[in-house]
C-alpha cells in the first residue's frame, strides 16, 4: 500500500479521514478544515469549506476559477484542473507562499468527493441555507449521502416540454419555500394547434423556482446552442468566489443581491453592485465575484458555454466586457 492510500484510511482523533492530493493534505477537526502544502498552510471554517467543496464537486469545477476563499481554489482547464493555494492572491505570490498543482479531472474529482462524503455529518446539508440545515460542527457523526450526491436538474429540451423533470406540484415532494409563500402557483394556459401538443409548452418559472430546496446552485432549464439559461435561488452568501474565464449575464428575477467584484488575479477590490428585481448586469471576464442575498431571491444566470471562449478572451481576440455602448 502506498503512503497516500494509508493516509486516507486512518481516521484522526475526531473520526475524520485525512486526505492527500499531490503535495496538498487535507485534515478536519470539530471546527476547521486544515490545508497544508510545501510552502504554507491554511485554515477554513468547516461549514464554509464544505459549502464550497460541494459546489466545486457538483459543478465539476464550473467555468474558470472556483475560489473557496481568497487563498484556496481550483482552475478548470476542461479535462484537467489546477488546485492552488495563494496563486490568485497578490500577497501570497509576493511572499512566495503560493503553490499550484495540476490533476486529471477524474483524480481531483474523486478525491474531492471522498473528502465531501467523509467530512459531512448527518446533520449538515452543504447546499441548504444556514437557516434550513443543522450543524457542520463536531466529531464525526454519520454521513449525509443523499445531500452530497444530489444532482443538478438538467433539461433535455426546455423545462415544461414533456419528458422533462418538473417541480411544480405538492406531489413533487418539493414544497414552496418559506420565503416564496407569496409566489402565485398557477400555470399559463397553452392552446396548441392540433398536432403540436408536444412541441409547444409554457410554465411559470417563478412557481418552478419557488420549490427549489437548494441555494446557489444554477440548474440548466433551457439550452439553445451554447446559450444556457441557469436560474437559481439564492440565500445568504455564494459559497465560492467565482473567477470568470468568460462574460456571464445576471438577470435578477426577485428581491436583491449585493455583488462584491474583485480583480480576478490579485483580489483587489473593483466594485460593489446591488442588483434589485428586474436589474440586468454582466460580469466581465477578468474579475471574480461573490453574491450576498439577505432574503432568498431568484437569479437567472445566462452562460455562454462555447468551449472557444476562454482561449479567445485570454489571447485578446475577444473582449473581457460584454457590450460596447
Ligand atoms: C456565479 O458564479 O456566477 C454564480 C454561481 C452560483 C450561483 C449564482 C452565480 O448560484
Ligand atoms: Fe460567476
Question: Key features?
Answer:
alpha+beta, 7 helices, four-stranded antiparallel sheet, 16 strands, binds P-hydroxybenzoic acid, 325 residues, twelve-stranded antiparallel sheet, binds fe (iii) ion, 31% strand, 17% helix
Question: What does this protein look like?
Answer:
- The protein is an alpha+beta fold.
- It contains seven helices and 16 strands.
- Helix content is 17%, strand content 31%.
- Strands 5, 6, 7, 8, 9, 10, 11, 12, 13, 14, 15 and 16 form a twelve-stranded antiparallel β-sheet that branches.
- Strand 2 and strand 3 form a beta hairpin.
- The model has no long low-confidence stretch (mean pLDDT 93).
- Fe (iii) ion (FE) binds next to loops.
